[in-house]
Every structure is written in structure tokens, then in C-alpha cells.
Amino acid sequence: MSNSFKRGRALTTAIAFSAAAAMVVSGCTTTGGDDTDESTGGDGATGSTVSIATTNALTSLHSGTAEHNLNTNGMVDYLTGNGGLGSFLTISNELEVVPDTTNGTMELVSEDPLQVKYTLNENAVWSDGTEMTVDDLLLSWVIGSGWFGDGDENYFSLAGSTAGLNTTDFPEIDRDARTLTLNYSEAYVDWNLVNLITKPAHVFAEQVDMSAEELTQFFTDTEKGEQGNETLSTLGEFHNTGYAITQMPTDESLLVSAGPYVVSDFQANDGGFVQLSPNENWQGDPVQVETIILKFIGDASTQIQQLANGEVNVIEPQADANTLQSLESQGSDVIQGDQLSYDHIDLTFDGVFADANVREAFLKTIPRQAIVDSIVKPVNPEASVLNSQLFVSSQEQYAEAEAANGYDSFTEPDIEGAKELLAGATPEVRILYSSDNPNRVNAFRLIQQSAEEAGFVIVDEADPEWSARLGSGDYDATIFGWISPGAGYAGLPQIFKTGGGGNYNNYSNTEIDGWIDETQTLIDDEERMLELQIMIDTATAEDFYGLPLFQSPGLVASDGSVDGLVYNPTQTGVVHNILEWSVVE
Amino acid sequence: MFSYVVRRILVSILTLLIASFLMYMLTALSADPLEELRTSSAPNKDELIARRIELLQLDVAPPLRWLMWVGGVASCLAPFAFECTLGNSIEGFEVALLLPPAMASTIRLVTAASILAIILGVVVGMVTALRQNSAFDIGTTFVSFFLYSLPSFLVAVLLKEFGAIGMNNFIQRGDPPQISLIWIIGLTVVSGLVWSLIVGGTPYRRLITFGVAGAATAAALVYMNLTNFFLEPSLGPVLLFLLIALTIVGVTALTAGLRNRRALIAAGIVGVIGYICYFTLQGLFDVSTIWTLLILGVVAIVVSVLVGFAVSYFGPDKGQVIRAAGITGFFVSFFVLIDRFMQAWPSYMANPRINGRPVATAQDATTGYSGDVWGTGIDQLMHFALPTISMLLVSFAFYTRFARAGLLEVFNQDYIRTARAKGLSEQTIVMRHAFRNMLIPLTTIIAADIGSLLGGALITERVFAIAGMGAMFNNGLRVLDLNPIMGYFLVIAILAIAFNFIADMLYAVLDPRVRVK
User: Secretion signal: which residues (chain A) (predicted)?
Assistant: First the structure.
């Protein structure tokens, strides 16, 4: 009795439930009946598309901060005019500065005192339609110069340094003429790399409830070195973390761009992507590729198979012998080149290498050609030994430097010569290198073998934490890599000047110090610059400073669907000439 | 019981603390997070180094930093002197915000693979146990150990080469794509051999099985060629009818036995309702969202169960009938859905983002593809198929062995002998007496496995570019980003401990012989 009652109730409940479900079902449907259109069309699927695989994921729409200075962030910045296309300048394949006059021009007014004038074009405009004004230029200057705050407490976290701009006065602004003039109190060698179109002032102004013009007024009224200012803190916070994203931002003002493209979709992390669509207000050369998709694929073999499967059109994987072989066997187009990073061996100038003869003898034993043959040739058959401490092979100046500096005499080992110099001595040399980097381990083995023939006693100081020991002096030689800054000369004092931040081997040569100081004040004098650089290069060789070994090989591969691809060694990578690309039908 | 639980929890917390300390120290001492900055020639290098030291508190010695980390984590549980935080990643992101999406990705990746591995592993394992020491048993053992020993990156690369690139080339270049004669003959022979080994029996019976299975396979392949299956697949009313009929018979046979007429009738009614729904629901399907489908699925199961309930209202065997009807309902709905997905296939293939190459080698969705629930469903399937298979192949072997050993052990028990002596049918003995008891140890294994599964599959995630927990750990290690690594560790450790605990509890619940003290 009670059992059947229960059953009856269960039945009623079930019927009521089904009825309710039917109602919910009708509510849970899409409106349109013509979904077939939707699935064949899709948004953003029209026009030409190029998909590029990048190794790192995008973490921020502003690579100018210390935390987010990563190559994929830099690529997107380049495409969206945050100091790339649509700003005042770009860097060419040969690492030279190329003016970009789409939105404005920069002009050297006077060399001494150094004065540079930035002029915005009449029609210069941001992607959201807002006109570009001097406010935008001033904001970039405020961020880059460290004008507010002091050295320890800077409001803006910068990937680059404030060097150069920190010697400028508050800029002269002419709102109607759309110009901003920088007056440097000291000569600054890289004045032509100072880019004042980065992020839009009206977006920053919004953060502190001002208009762009009011923001400029605020900057003008605030004292230099002002500390603990709330408005500046808000602006700094926005600059440092506001552009860091883990999903497509809902705030569209973060996407405002000065370049040919605007970010239109994003998914974070490995396996994610960022999609770029044309900037409708772009004034420069028209884009020929409608949609650019950067896919974040960390694994090189995955990139290669995606290329083979047509999921991406262009890849720029880590170049190694396997990569090259698989790309060639699957018939992809491969473009090879040299990266800006190069391995070198440096000698510590105290201890056993205080004696120039020992240094020379040791350098004479280093089999540079054999190192290149075994490490780089399998990837790039045309690779050769790097023969300059200052230039990389893609630079036009390299050939001249190579001919003059004398590094080419160390290409093949000269064991006999080394033995003569040592005159029977058997100095002990501790070599520090990264045990995690197979290239460095290889190079060490070859050097060890060759140096021991000449009588050196080599101590293997392989260490996964090698970098923390740099400059500690508890080693005599170290094999590691520098990344050439490419364009610009402000990095020169770092490595070769006495006490420089990257001068880990205690190298000191007063003549070189003087030359380096001179380079830092040279304005617009490429001839003298080249002369000085070659002198420095030569002097390091004469001091037996150490030896450059090789540039890391790089490559770009495509499925043949994109015309106009060129290898570019800078952080911008393959997209640097995106306006010249076209899709092959 | 209560004291047991409390003791377990206290011990777990202690384990967690010690393990996290070891993990923290080992990781912190393994590399230098400032390496890339030290070797940079940036003019403001010192400033960059100072900033990173400040962000990651690198000026504090690792053991103290560990204490601060523990403090931050503990504050999430109870208000404490520290603020609740799992720390920052090297890019300045809160680890607590990075964990949920990574976990979601991993869950998406491992769910299907684990469920399939369990089902397939158990089924195959049971069959091998029933045909112990036969050629099929030995063959399966060989294959499963072979797969188990393959490194997963190799499996992944091979799968992509043949399953994705090769398959796409086949689909794209054929006009229309046709399975070649060699493949048809090969697959026919293989399928005939496998089936004849599974079914076994006298040579004559084997020959018959070989012939039937081979013929069916050949017919299916020829059908695919004739109907241009790879470009316009469909089940259609005829094939669907056949499938439903097979399901009714098969499900009834396994759950209740064909002699149970009521079960057969209930399954039959469900089949008919499903077949009618196939014709009437197409309009609704066109405007469906994922929620519509979920609700329809629930309704389908409820209706099936009700049918079973109604048919068996006056019978003694409600459980069996309802089960037969319910399972039939599940499969019939599944086939109807498959048919609808097939209908969406041509428009999916025609999408310019797909461009006639449907199987993807990496990532979790096609960038820029947007479609209705059917299109996106296919897209998901095409992206998750290969990673799922590659994970499946490894864990499949494990479950096969486990199920085989489990069933063989149960078969030696007295109660099975009793059941045989009673004259119960083999189907009843296997499905009702042996199978269920075999599942008890399996349940605890699965519970313990879930914890480790959520750790993600480091290699699979990397090779298929899926940003799950494994990828997070991997990336953290690469640049020595300590806090994400510890975030990963925290999740994995807690889950492992929790699920082990659950497994112990479950065992006690399922097996009355076991008591916790």
C-alpha cells in the first residue's frame, strides 16, 4: 500500500520534472536556426590569415616593464606600435635604426648641447580614433626618464634603463605645433633610439580621472623627484601591472594601438594564442595580411608538426640539428641566420691569468674552428667562427672589424706556440661553465683536450648555478653567452669598462676606458664610432681578453604560404617586416 | 572511527609540511633564478636584478622563505599574521590565480582518458581472464606491455605523424578519400583473427567467427568508401536502426540475459522511443546549446528508467529490467547524438580555419573558430582525440593487468564455485558475482589514481601544448620560478593525501570484512 503510494509519487515527480525540463530546454537554445552559416563563416575568418608559432606565451601587452620583457610580448608591442611600427623608429635586419614616419618624425636640432625635436603628424591617431598629441610623447618621457621619484623609488618599473633620458630637462612642449623638444644636459650616444610613442596618455589619464591634457598639466606642475605621490603611484601601478593579462581584457582601452594591428583575441599560457586584427585607423603602408595569429607552442617538435599539418604557417623554433633535419625532411621552407646571442670564453685577469704570456698561451690552445664544426655546423652548415667582441655577423661593420682586430689568428689551435710561451710551466686553469647547457659542455671538452696538450692543467668547474658565481673570482676562465644589444652603444661600458656591471673578469685597460667614455658622448658620427669600436675590439685581442666563439644559429621555417619572410636576429623576430608579407594563394 | 580520521588528518598535515620543505629546498637550491639577468648586458642590469630579488624575496635564505610561504598558505585556512597568498610567479602574477585554469585544462585532458582507460582496460582484462592462456590472452599481454613501455613523447609524435598529419593528408588529397584495397583486406583479416580469438571454441566455430567478423568489417569499410564517409559521414535511418537493434539485444544479454523477456521488451520500447526521437528532435538539435543537450540527456535516462519501471511493475526483477532499459537509453541517445555530430561535419570541414584538415596536432581548440554546439564539439574532439589516445595507451595496460588478475582471483573463490554448483548461467556468474567483487579493489586503485592524474601529464601536456598542471610545473622548473612549482606541489600533495584517505574509507564501506580502527 505504502509502497505503491511511493511509486505513484515517484511517477508524478518524474513527470513534473520532465515537464519542467522541457520548459528549460526551450530556454536553453540558441536563437537563430541558420547555425550552418555560423559554423562556416565564424568571426574573423575572412581574409588572409597567417599563424605563427612562438615559443613563449604572451604575458603582458607592455614589454617595457622589467617583469614582462619577453620576446612574444615584444612581438605584439612591435605590431601594435608600442615602440615598434607606427612609433618613431624601428631596427633593421642589419641592426640599424630606421625612422618610421607614419605618425611622426624626430630631428636632431643641435649636437652640442644635444637637442632633439619630436613632431607628430597632423593625422597621427590611435587605433580608438583618439588623436595623438604631445601628451602621449610627454607620458613616454615621464615613464622613461625617471623624472619623478628617485633612483631607489621609481614609480615605473622599466625593462630598459633611464640612462640618457635622465639627463634631460623637462621637455619643451608646443601643443599647437605638435612638437616636443628634449634638451640633454650631457651628450647621449643613443639619442636616436629614444622613442616617445609607447602607450596612450588618454588611457593612463583615465586611471587617475583626468584628461590627457590635465595629465600633462599635472606632470608640469609636479616637482622633479617627487616621492610618495598618490597619482604617480597609481600611474606607476597601472604601467607596471595594468597591462599584464591572463585572459582577454574586458577593458578595451588596454588594447589601444599605434601600430598596424590591434589585439583582438587572447588565450594565456602554452597552447594559447593572441590574435591581431588590422588597426582601422592605421596611416602607414596598408597591411596585406588580414589576421595575424601568434600561437604559443613551447615544444619545438610540436611546432614542426603543426607546420606540417597546416595549423601554423610560420615557426621560429630553437634551432638544433634535429629541428633542421625534420624540417627539411617534411619539405618546409627554411631560412637560416645567426642570432644575437654568442658564446665566448673570458679569462679572469687576476690569478693564473695575471700573466699575459699565460693568457696568450691559453688562447692559442682554444680550438675555435673545431668548436664551431662540432656545435654549430650540424645546424647551420655555413656557420663560421665569430671574430669580434663588439659586432655580430649580421652587422655591416663586422667585416671591417674582423679584418682589423686580429681575432682571426686564433681560429686554429697553435699548441707548439703555446708550449713555447709556457716554457715548461703547467698552470692550473679552473673553467666555469653551465653543466646544463650541452653546447657549453661540448666546448669545454674540446678546450680541455687541446689545452692539456700544451701543458695546462684544466679543472672542470661545471656548475648548474654557474651564473651566481660570475664575478666571484673563484675561477680562471668561463664559457658563457652574451646577447648583443643589437642597435645602440649604451651597453658598451657594461662589459669592457673597468668596474662595468658585466665586467666579471676584472678587466681593466685605461685606454679602452677612455675610448668607451668617448663613444658614450658621440652624436651622429658613425665614422668615429666605428673607428673607436674597432680600436676597442683590437685592444681586447691584444690584451688576450678572451675569445668570442660562435653566434647561436637561428632559423625560420614556413609552409610556403607566406611571401616576404626574412630572418631577423632581434627580439622582434620574424614579424619585423610584416608589412611586406603577403599570403600566397 | 572518529579518532582514526583525526589521526589520519594530523599525520597528513605533518607529511605535507615535511614534503613541502623538502620540495622547497631542493627546488630553491637547484638553479639560479637570476641567471638570465646576470648574463644580460642591459645597462640597468643591477636594477633589474634588485627588482626580481624584491619580487621573489631572494634575499631571504630558502628555509626562511619556506616559512614565509607556509605562513602565506596557512593564512588562507585561518587568519594569521601573514596575508593569504601562494606567492607570485616570476612575472608578478598571483599563483592562486594561475592554478584554477591550469587545473581545469588538466581535468579536461585527463577525464576522458581515464574513464576510457578504465572501461577499456576492465573489459579487455575481463575477456583475457575468461580466455586465460589463450592466444588472445597472450597477445593482449604482449600488446599492453609493449604500449606500457613506450615513452609517451614517442607515442605522441607517432600519433601526430600518422593520426593527424597522415589522416589529414588522406582526407584532403583523396577526391573523394577512398580506403585502398590493401587496407580493406588487411583490416578484414586482422578483425577476423581478433574476433575468432576472443570468441574461441572449436576450429569450426572459430572459422565461422572469422568469416562473420571479417565480412562485417569489409562491409563497413566498403560502405564508408561508397558513401564518401570521410567528407559526409552519417548513420542515417537505416544504420541507426541496425545499431539500436544490436544495442537492445546486446545490453539485454549482458545485463539480464535474453531469456528475461521483460528486460528485452523494456529495452525494445526505449529503443523505439529513441528512434522516434531521432526523427522528431532534429529541429530542436539545430538550435541546441550544450545545456539543451545535457537536459535532453537527463530526460532520456529518466524516461528509460521509467519505461523499465513501468514494464517491470508487476515483475520480480525490477533492478535488472530498469538497468537494461537505462543502459539502452544511454546508448541510443549516444547514437542519435553521434548522427547529429556527423551531420555537422561537412560544414566544420569547410570552415576556412579548418580548411579540410580536421585532426589537430596540438592546442585545445582551433584559434578563431566559432560555431554552434556541434561544430565546437567536433573541434574539441579533433583536438583532444590524440592526447587522449596517447594517455590511454599507457594507463590501459595497467587496468588490463589489474582487471585480469582481479577476475582470476575471484574465480577461485568458494562463492563462485557455489554459484556454478547451483547451475547459474555463465553470464550471471561473471556479470553478477565475479565482476562486482572484482571492482572492490579496483575502486580503491582508481580513487588513489585520480589524485596523481590531476598532477597532469608533464610530457603529454608539453607535446600537445595544453597548459595544465604539468605544463605549469615544467615552466616553473625551466626558469626556476619557485612559487608556481610550490602551488603545483600543494595541489598534488593535498589531492594525493585526500584521495588515499578516501580510498581507505571506500574500501571499508565496500568490503564489510575491512574495518578501520
Answer: 1-21
Q: What is the pTM of this model?
A: 0.86
Q: Cα(B11)–Cα(B257) distance, rounded to whole angstroms?
A: 49
Q: What is the rounded distance in angstroms from the CA atom of residue A253 to the CA atom of residue A245?
A: 13
With a CB cutoff of 8 Å and minimum separation 6, the contacts of B274 are B244, B300, B329, B332, B333, B335, B336
Question: Do A85 and A195 contact (CB within 8 A), yes or no?
Answer: no
Domain boundaries, chain B: 2-85+480-510, 100-177+230-457, 178-229
> Is ipTM strictly over 0.90?
no
Residue A2 has pLDDT above 80, yes or no: no
**CA triple B365-B366-B367, angle to 5 deg:** 110
Which of A18, A22, A467 lies closest to B39 in CB terms?
A467
Give the residue with greater pLDDT, A383 vs B479.
Answer: A383
Mark yes or no for CB contact A35/B287 under 8 Å.
yes
User: Shortest Cα distance from A67 to chain B (angstroms)?
Assistant: 5
B433-448 pLDDT tens trace: 898 888 888 887 887 7
Q: Which residues of chain B neighbour A59 with C-beta distances below 8 Å?
A: 91, 93
Q: Where are the domains of chain A?
A: 18-25+63-243, 342-552
**B301-343: pLDDT as tens digits:** 999 999 999 988 877 888 889 999 999 999 999 999 999 999 9
At the second CATH level, the architecture of A342-552 is Roll (3.10)
Task: Round to whole Å and give the CA distance between B454 and B467.
Answer: 13
Query: Do residue A305 and residue B160 have CB atoms under 8 angstroms apart?
Result: yes
Architecture of domain A18-25+63-243: Alpha-Beta Complex (3.90)
CB contact under 8 A, B97 and A271: no
Give φ, ψ of A151 to 5 degrees.
Answer: -50, -45
Chain B hits for A190, Cβ within 8 Å:
none
